[in-house]
Amino acid sequence: MVLNQSSFWTQANALFRKSLTFQKRNVKTNVRLILLPLILCVLLVLLQNLIDYLNDKTTVFKCGCVCPNQRETCDDSEKLCGVQYSDQTQAIFCKIPNPPEWPPLLQLPAVSCKKNQSCPFSMLFTAENQSFAQIVSDNMFPSAPTVDFSDIMASFYTNVLGSASLPGTTNFLEPGFTPDVPVYYLQTQCPQNNSGISFPYKIKGKTIQLDIRCGQGINFWRNSSDDINNEIYQSYKRKKSEGRINAIITAFDFLNSNDDAFDVTVWYNGTKKKGDVLSRVPRSINLISNAYLQFLCGPGTKMLFEFVKEMPKSETSYRINIASLLGGLFFTWVILQLFPVVLTSLVYEKEHKLRIMMKMHGLGDGPYWMITYGYFLVLSMIYMLCFVIFGSVLGLKFFTLNDYSIQFVFYFIYINLQISLAFLLSSVFSNVMTATVTAYMGVFGTGILSGVLFQSFIEDSSFPRKWLICMELYPGFALYRGLWEFSQSASMGTDGMRWRDLSNSTNGMKEVLIIMFVEWTVFLFVAYYIDQVLSTGSRKSPLFFLKGFQKKHLSSFKTKISIQRQGSNVLAHTGKPDVIQEREKVEQLLLQPTINHAIVCDDLKKFYPGRDGNPGKFAVKELFLAVPRGVCFGMLGPNGAGKTSFISMMIGLTKPSSGVAYVEGLDIRTHMDAIYTSMGVCPQHDLLWESLTGREHLLFYGRLKNLKGSALTQAVEESLKSLNLFHGGVADKKAGKYSGGMKRRLSVAISLIGDPKVVYMDEPSSGLDPASRKCLWNAIRLAKRDRAIILTTHSMEEAEALCDRLGIFVDGSLQCIGNPKELKARYGGTYVFTMTTSSDHEKGVENMVRKLTPNANKIYHLSGTQKFELPKEEVKIANVFQAVEVAKRNFTVFAWGLADTTLEDVFIKVARNAQAFDTWS
Predict the structure, then answer these.
(1) Which domains, and CATH codes, for the chain?
(2) Which of 183, 423, 672, 852 would be a feasible disulfide site paired with 538, CB 3.0-4.6 Å?
(3) Please, which domain of life does this record's source organism belong to (predicted)?
(4) Which of 405, 348, 418, 334 minimizes the C-alpha distance to 376?
(5) pLDDT tens-digit profile of 675-725?
């Protein structure tokens, strides 16, 4: 049977079916994952209802109300409500059809002045024309106040009033006209006794006595705007350290202003501005404008700045939108929860070597990436779809107000970016636990940093936009910025975010979408590149993509054009005729037009460089080997002899340091992907999905080997029966519940499914009971009829029962090669005689053996038990029996035996001789 290479879609179908079956086993976990957004949305709704209930019960967030006739208690229907009954915090919730008018104020610095004393306030000015600037500046402050006590509030616009109070977010209540902070009227010179003006005024239906004191406005010339800037900064810094703010009100730079042109820059202190509060700069601009008009047209010319007035408004209620307020943070955590799921799944396949196991059985990189990426994308889309649906059904404005198409594009791009990033980072981790802990630390750390640090930068309009974009290059911050924009659009009383809003310079959604899309494509490309160059198994050159221009017909792979040897062709030492003969056989095969052996190794070497001061070591050196089809080749050797390194090179886990090997005529250095399609592997450790059954494992790997329909079903049934996994429901039991022996048998069945032409088995019978081992041997005997098998084992019985040829490795070199009978004849031409007596008669036993043959060799001696090697050509078995009978008459013989040479004896002898030679050399 000739194995046909499975197509791209056949491999994709196999992996898709396996993934679908795997997810059916984990349906509860997936349901819990998808229900997480629902749980969060329900909690937000419950919290929203609780806050709304508390708001309705409290009077803090309502317009002020009192009981009539000064009663302390009354029904809600009897209460009188209005702004006149409200304090400053309650007034913003009241209906205000006619807001009060307030005189415009200058923003004054906070100073400490004794009562009845003048308080000086400074203004700085500079200009190219000093005389002009001096004249204009002298017109700013009047010499005396003008007060109309019949309408004192309306008359204040003709005076220059100022206050050190901080302005609020509205002008319904002017903080400057409260008894807490003094109000000043500024003029050129204050009277000797600065008693000020005292008058009553009504606000919110109450009469308040207000005192206005005189403040002296003084103008100071400075040579340049740089001097002004430095003085304001240094004075502010010095005074602040003393607990006070400097007494500089504002500053003006008249630039090149003159009689024909007016061009002025106004400087003011904005250091105490917090949040979205009003500014008192307009009064400064009005003062300098009036001063210039008086310079041009005389002292009677003015532009009156009569009042500042809030807009009328209806009654408002205080409502906290929890979803919009906390959505940016909590929804960031919800979406980021997908990242550890994807990352740990990828690292799990890497840690348990499931990816390389699938690859060694023919799964290409293209189908793997398509199906795996597609699966995570579908899972993430279902997750996000449920997230949006749950939030919308529960009425969260975060979802219902913002355009769903924008939400779809945003979430779709981000989940793709998140999956690509997980593929990229999976190359960094090799342990699931480390990846899980790191991923969840990143999730919660990103949320906290976004809510505490990054949000403050977003809200700070003075923070440079370019640095904000740089921070958004981190995917977690880009996600938070997008969610924050959704949150702001849903909480500002608008109809939510629309596509037209993306053109707004203050909206960061457009730049976030661009950044995430670019990072998605870049991360995906880099992840795939690293996977091809650095991933375990069939590593490619960093410039592998340039080889796409070369033709890759399999027929051309099988033609050997030339042979280049690296290193010496001289064997380490002579005296190995079987090894030399194998080398000559390899050279003859390589001279033929095509290589018709299943496996041919030509001077294969593997060298590991030294580390930490230790010298380098050849794990495999000068290996020549030819294995035809229908032969099981057994590899024997002590631990560390190089067997695993040889297998690793042949299955593509590592590349040879020099030399070359051909599998079905294909070079392992360049064509491992093609070799995988005709190769089966039973690794030393079982590489299985614990949640899949034995039958599902075989169905998956059978599909990878291009088996379909009834042929696939038949092959799976035969594999299960041949390895005793069919009866008793074992085939449909999860592999995680298998015993160690059942897992080994399943691994062997996987290596043989699909009729691979070359099979590697690394200690396949380890951990098996005698009955299971016998069953396994029968399966391997049947399997080796039309394929080449390389088997490593420590069981001499297994090697003798299964292997047609054997090779003994010691210290990376092949010491001997041949079938078991040849090796025993070549290295075991002796009998092993054993006798146990008391210690007093040990000398008599040795004399008896020397009489049989003077060339006897004692190989063991302990407490009366001695072993001797007797050359077969010098000793007859009958003579041995006669000698033992004679010995029994002379002394007591507790036990004795005569055995032919075993394979184990050959192994020990070859290993000792090789180690002794290495020590001597």
Answers:
(1) 8-42+338-534 (no CATH), 101-309 (no CATH), 829-900 (3.30.70.1150)
(2) 672
(3) Eukaryota
(4) 418
(5) 888 899 998 888 898 889 999 999 999 998 888 889 999 999 999 988 888
